[in-house]
């Protein structure tokens, strides 16, 4: 039997995750049946579950992958810029549906919550590190602890995701982000 190249395996894994992302975003975790996953991915269940133990492992891998991408963007550009990009180019943020499903599963599935707590630390760490760098450079408020700034920005991000997911992308959301950005910046005296 011929050996499959690492590039082929990586491409297949990426194909599976991309299709699963669309399926979970459209139908939610519960509604993303194996049949729907097969249709969205374009592969048989045998091909899909050769790479992932089961639907739960597939969803967790997808959530992990999306969290790593978001952590990279947050570390390099900041969380407010991520939110601006979400408004400007929502088609590039196909992980929004995954993030909503993660929130639901964290709330309802203790096993998922325990596993996810470890994974979400990467995103928190990346965002916190950027905030610390910006604060040290004098760009952010120094009268508010960094972890409070992080909690505030996470809350705004979650709210923005909920707004976008519900189809409410009013023109004033950009102005709201201007206000959010101004509220965390260091005030000139």
TrEMBL record:
Keyword match Transmembrane: no
Source species, domain of life: Bacteria
SUPFAM superfamilies given in the database record: Homeodomain-like (SSF46689), Tetracyclin repressor-like, C-terminal domain (SSF48498)
InterPro entries: DNA-bd_HTH_TetR-type_CS, Homeodomain-like_sf, HTH-type_TetR-like_transc_reg, HTH_TetR, Tet_transcr_reg_TetR-rel_C_sf
Annotated keywords: DNA-binding
Keyword DNA-binding: yes
Residues covered by the HTH tetR-type domain: 10-70
Positions of the DNA-binding region: 33-52
A matching Pfam family: TetR_N
Protein name as catalogued: TetR/AcrR family transcriptional regulator
Source species taxonomy: Bacteria, Bacillati, Actinomycetota, Actinomycetes, Mycobacteriales
């Amino acid at each position: 039997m011929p050996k499959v190249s690492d590039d082929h395996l990586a491409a297949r894994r990426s194909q599976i995750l991309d299709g699963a992302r669309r399926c979970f975003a459209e139908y939610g975790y519960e509604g993303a049946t194996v049949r729907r996953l097969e249709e969205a991915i374009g592969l048989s269940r045998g091909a899909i579950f050769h790479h992932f133990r089961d639907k739960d492992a597939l969803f967790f891998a997808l959530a992990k992958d999306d969290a790593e991408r978001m952590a990279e963007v947050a570390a390099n550009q900041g969380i407010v810029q991520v939110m601006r990009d979400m408004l400007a180019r929502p088609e590039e943020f196909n992980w929004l549906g995954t993030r909503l499903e993660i929130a639901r599963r964290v709330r309802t599935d203790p096993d998922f919550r325990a596993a996810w707590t470890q994974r979400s630390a990467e995103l928190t760490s990346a965002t916190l590190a950027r905030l610390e760098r910006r604060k040290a450079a004098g760009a952010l408020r120094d009268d508010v602890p960094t972890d409070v700034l992080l909690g505030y920005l996470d809350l705004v991000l979650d709210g923005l995701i909920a707004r976008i997911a519900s189809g409410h992308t009013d023109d004033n959301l950009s102005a709201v982000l201007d206000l959010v950005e101004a509220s965390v910046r260091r005030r000139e005296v």
